[in-house]
């Protein structure tokens, strides 16, 4: 797979929760969990399942920063 996005995080699918129209996919990236919401059609095409290797591709126009008081 070749794409222009540089923020690609390799991990393992730990949970796939299918809803009425969207699927929530949880990917373990080195002990941190990234959750994505994608269409059911996309989840089916990717054949997502627990234990499958996956890549979280992050594309954002803004990055917010916060600190604790």
Automatic annotation (TrEMBL):
Signal peptide: none annotated. Keywords: Molybdenum. This is Molybdopterin-binding protein. PROSITE patterns: MOP. Pfam families: TOBE. Residues 2-67 form the Mop domain. Gene3D superfamilies: 2.40.50.100. The keyword Kinase does not apply.
